[in-house]
Design goal:
By secondary structure, the protein is mainly alpha-helical. The chain has helices spanning 2-24, 66-77, 79-85, 91-101, 138-149, 152-172, 180-192, 215-218, 222-229, 232-249, and strands spanning 123-124, 131-132, 203-204, 211-212.
Length: 256
């Protein structure tokens, strides 16, 4: 709006100046008409993957939503798994920020809704033989097991019930015309496209942190790199489950 007002003011000023020149110097040719005002931006077309909210009770505010989310996740995951994996503060905002970042080059670990794995990244060899150690996949097995045992239909039912809060958090993240469920589907699709290396995954260590020696792997998104580091078996299990989630959250694509 501010830009449109500035452009309009400039056009009005140009018209006034042109009129002044015409009346003070009648011998000058008539000035050309002012250029047309820029067209208004197209209205949002609506979500590609709309969500039907399923809630028979008023939702809490986003700022006060943690207790409701904690209760729902404890019932879904069980108290032990919940305590092991879930960070209990700012859950919806952190989930939204992490989902938005997974298809990008980096994501902020401080905003992750999950606790760290513990242990250290395991490698073998050095120099030209440096690679991810086969034992490194075991660090991810407990998480893959927990993820594999969650009922996707029950998880998506909770998500649909709380979806207005997810959408609010997404708007507040800086997407006033965006739809979080569309971004969630994009993130899942990006993960499903993660590379599936055959054989050992070579590494380099140009600085302090490890990087993939293969430029294509190093250019992968943050979420894809996590799947590769999990090892081929865990990656396959995660992708199989993600396909189920995608089917549920993208069940009703809007016509284009």
């Amino acid at each position: 709006m501010r830009a449109s007002r500035i452009i309009l003011a400039v056009l009005v000023l140009a018209a006034i100046v042109a009129a002044g020149l015409y009346f003070f110097w009648p011998s000058a040719p008539p000035p050309p008409p002012p250029p047309p005002a820029p067209a208004a931006p197209a209205a949002p077309t609506g979500p590609r993957y709309p969500v039907t909210t399923q809630s028979d009770q008023p939702l809490p505010t986003l700022a006060a939503s943690d207790p409701a989310v904690i209760d729902a996740l404890q019932r879904l995951l069980g108290p032990q798994v919940f305590a092991q994996w879930i960070v209990t503060e700012g859950l919806i905002r952190n989930i939204v920020a992490t989902v938005d970042n997974l298809p990008r080059e980096h994501f902020a670990r401080r905003l992750s809704p999950l606790n760290g794995l513990g242990g250290t990244f395991k490698t073998t060899g050095s120099g030209d033989t440096l690679e991810i150690a086969p034992a490194n996949a075991a660090r991810y097995s407990a998480f893959a097991n927990a993820f594999d045992h969650v009922d996707p239909a029950a998880a998506v039912a909770i998500y649909q019930k709380l979806y207005p809060l997810f959408q609010q958090a997404y708007v507040e993240l800086g997407y006033p015309n965006g739809y979080f469920n569309d971004r969630l589907v994009e993130a899942i699709d990006n993960l499903l496209d993660a590379p599936e290396p055959k054989g050992p995954v070579k590494l380099v260590s140009p600085h302090v942190l490890f990087e993939f020696a293969d430029p294509d792997l190093e250019a992968a998104s943050a979420g894809q790199k996590v799947l590769v580091r999990m090892g081929p078996e865990n990656e396959a299990r995660m992708k199989a489950k993600l396909k189920q989630y995608r089917t549920l959250v993208a069940a009703q694509p809007a016509p284009r």
